[in-house]
C-alpha cells in the first residue's frame, strides 16, 4: 500500500513539473513591438516624368521701317514696355546730311512698341548704327503668355490630349497644375519626339527658358485598396510580396499580395484579403514569421496623411 501511495505521489510531482515547464515556455515566447497603419481605399495614379522648359508664346518682332541711322534707343534688354512706348528713333540719310542746316524733324522716324511685354532680344545697342529697311531691331515678348514646351517621345502620344491636366514641378517643393494647350502635328526627325505646349497655372509670371519637370498620368485607379510602401515586404529576388496583417491585436499574420500601381508613398493591392478595418504592420515587419506575437507600439498614420494630400 505504501508503495502505491509513493508511486502516485511521484507521478503527481512529475505531472506538476511538466505543467509548470510548459507554462514557463509559453511565457518565454518573444513579443515583437511594431507600428501599424490602417488599410485605405482611394485613388492612386501612375505618372511618367519628362523634362520641359518655359517659352513665350507671343513674340513680336520690331523692324526698321526705313533705311537709316539709329539716333536714339529708349530701351534696354530685359525692360518691360507698354504698347505704344517709344523704342527707337531712326534718322534718314537725307536728314543726317542736312543736320547742320537745321532740317528739323523731317526724316526722323519713331518706332513704337507693338504690344506690352519684355524686350527679350535687342539687336541694336548703340546709337549711330546704320540699319536697312526691314532689319530686326528687337523683339517684344508678351510674358503673360508663357507656356511650357515638352518634347514628348511619340510612343507616349496616346497619353496626352488637348485640355488634359498634368502636373508641373520646379525643384523639390514647388508643384502646380498645368493644362495641355496644343499638340503640334509634327515630329522631330532625329529624336522622334512631338512638341507639346502646356499652359501653367501659377500665381506669378515664369521666366523664359526655366527648366522644370512635367508629370503625365499613365494610369489611374479609383476606390482601390492602398497600403503605405513600407508596409509591403518582399523576398531577396522581389518575386513575392506580402503584408503582415494584425489579428486580434496580438498576432501578425502573413498575407501574400499582388501589387498594382505604386508611387513614392502608396502601393495598390490587387488581390482580395484586406478590408478598410484591417491594420497592417508599417514598422518592424521585416523578419517576422507568420503568426508572430506582437505588441502595438502606436499607430503610424503617415501613409494615410500622404494619401489625403493627393
Strand content: over 45%
The name of the CATH topology of the largest domain is conserved putative lor/sdh protein from methanococcus maripaludis s2 fold
- Helix count, DSSP H or I runs of 4 or more residues: 3
Provide the succession of SSEs: HEEEEEEHEEEEEEEEEEEEEEEEH
- Low-confidence region ranges: 301-310
Enumerate the strands of the largest sheet in spatial order, edge to edge or round the barrel.
Answer: 16-17-18-22-1-21
Mean pLDDT: 86
Query: Main β-sheet: number of strands, strand sense, barrel status?
Result: 6 strands, mixed
Number of domains: 3
**SS-based class:** mainly beta
Gyration radius over CA: 37 Å
CATH class of the largest domain: Mainly Beta
CATH architecture of the largest domain: Beta Barrel
Q: How many angstroms separate the termini?
A: 83 Å
Shape: rod-shaped
Q: How many E-type strands?
A: 22
Estimate percent helicity. 10-25%
Account of the protein in words:
With 310 residues, the chain is mostly beta strands. The protein folds into 3 domains: 31-46 and 221-309, conserved putative lor/sdh protein from methanococcus maripaludis s2 fold; 47-56 and 145-220, Elongation Factor Tu (Ef-tu), domain 3 (Beta Barrel); 59-141, OB fold (Dihydrolipoamide Acetyltransferase, E2P). 13% of the residues lie in helices and 49% in strands. The N and C termini lie far apart (83 Å).
Reconstruct the topology from this structure.
Elements: H1 2-27, E1 32-38, E2 40-56, E3 59-63, E4 68-73, E5 80-81, E6 86-91, H2 93-97, E7 108-112, E8 117-122, E9 130-131, E10 136-141, E11 146-153, E12 165-170, E13 174-187, E14 193-200, E15 211-228, E16 233-234, E17 241-247, E18 251-256, E19 259-262, E20 266-269, E21 279-283, E22 292-299, H3 302-309
Parallel strand pairs: 1-22
Antiparallel strand pairs: 1-21, 2-11, 2-15, 3-10, 4-6, 4-9, 5-8, 6-7, 8-10, 11-14, 12-13, 12-15, 13-14, 15-20, 16-17, 17-18, 18-22, 19-20
Amino acid at each position: 500500500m505504501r508503495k502505491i501511495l509513493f508511486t502516485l505521489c511521484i507521478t503527481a510531482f512529475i505531472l506538476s513539473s511538466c505543467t509548470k515547464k510548459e507554462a514557463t515556455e509559453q511565457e518565454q515566447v518573444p513579443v515583437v513591438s511594431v507600428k501599424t497603419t490602417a488599410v485605405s481605399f482611394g485613388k492612386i495614379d501612375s505618372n511618367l516624368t519628362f523634362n520641359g522648359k518655359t517659352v513665350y508664346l507671343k513674340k513680336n518682332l520690331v523692324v526698321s521701317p526705313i533705311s537709316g541711322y539709329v539716333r536714339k534707343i529708349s530701351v534696354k534688354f530685359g525692360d518691360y514696355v507698354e504698347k505704344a512706348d517709344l523704342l527707337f528713333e531712326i534718322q534718314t540719310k537725307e536728314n543726317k546730311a542736312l543736320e547742320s542746316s537745321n532740317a528739323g524733324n523731317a526724316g526722323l522716324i519713331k518706332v513704337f512698341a507693338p504690344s506690352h511685354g519684355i524686350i527679350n532680344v535687342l539687336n541694336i545697342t548703340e546709337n549711330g548704327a546704320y540699319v536697312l529697311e526691314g532689319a530686326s531691331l528687337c523683339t517684344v515678348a508678351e510674358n503673360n503668355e508663357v507656356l511650357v514646351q515638352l518634347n514628348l517621345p511619340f510612343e507616349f502620344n496616346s497619353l496626352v490630349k488637348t485640355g488634359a491636366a498634368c502636373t508641373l514641378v520646379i525643384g523639390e517643393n514647388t508643384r502646380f497644375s498645368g493644362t495641355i494647350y496644343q499638340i503640334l502635328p509634327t515630329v522631330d526627325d532625329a529624336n522622334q519626339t512631338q512638341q507639346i505646349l502646356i499652359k501653367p497655372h501659377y500665381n506669378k509670371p515664369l521666366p523664359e527658358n526655366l527648366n522644370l519637370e512635367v508629370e503625365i498620368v499613365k494610369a489611374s485607379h479609383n476606390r482601390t485598396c492602398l497600403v503605405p510602401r513600407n508596409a509591403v515586404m518582399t523576398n531577396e529576388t522581389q518575386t513575392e510580396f506580402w503584408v503582415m496583417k494584425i489579428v486580434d491585436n496580438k498576432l501578425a499574420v502573413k498575407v501574400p499580395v499582388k501589387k498594382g500601381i505604386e508611387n513614392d508613398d502608396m502601393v495598390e493591392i490587387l488581390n482580395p484579403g484586406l478590408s478598410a478595418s484591417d491594420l497592417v504592420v508599417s514598422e518592424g515587419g521585416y523578419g517576422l514569421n507568420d503568426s508572430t506575437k506582437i505588441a502595438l507600439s502606436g499607430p503610424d498614420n503617415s501613409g494615410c496623411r500622404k494619401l489625403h494630400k493627393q
